[in-house]
């Protein structure tokens, strides 16, 4: 697996345009190489990410610049779910606004007990409309609206309860628990995981009947993969599968 670390703690790991562009570059780096199975996203310092850099959002920057910031941010968030490898957020601290959006956009998120999550844009006159896209798809609607309308933070346990994150762990075990998940994913077939991830997000955007049609078709495609047949043979022969990681 590969690690990406937000490394600007003095600026609370704000998602400035340059940070977003760097993040996009790092997400896409070697993403199609067979050896890459998982990306782990973490941050240095007590703040995972405070969201957009508000200094870049003043009127002096202009509308075109603001458009570029939010276009790039949306591209990064969608990339996390569109790339073929799972992305795991490893959170130890505060994740607010677009930082909370970043966590919500990852496939899996593990956080320490002290971590908190919030969308406080409304308190500075900028409603968190783009974070709402990811958060509103991760937590129940009324929970999302309370976060968006009040800006009040929720605890890691509340985030777990509502589905924003996958697991809460003691601070001293964050890396151990996160990397254990990453290693478990790495033991599976890369093309099978890639197909499953893509299908999950595709069917979640569909109605029930269309989702079943999509998933049924993909199950047949999965069976046609070399590793689909290898896994079944290994199960029947009571042995470990020897994955080829071949896409066809």
TrEMBL record:
Localization of this protein: Mitochondrion
Domain of life per record: Eukaryota
Subcellular location, principal: mitochondrion
Gene Ontology BP, a term: fatty acid metabolic process
Keyword ATP-binding: no
A GO term for molecular function: hydro-lyase activity
GO cellular component: mitochondrion
Keywords in alphabetical order: Fatty acid metabolism, Lipid metabolism, Mitochondrion, Transit peptide
Function field: May play a role in fatty acid biosynthesis and insulin sensitivity.
Family note: Belongs to the enoyl-CoA hydratase/isomerase family.
Name the record gives this protein: Enoyl-CoA hydratase domain-containing protein 3, mitochondrial
Species, as recorded: Tetraodon nigroviridis (Spotted green pufferfish)
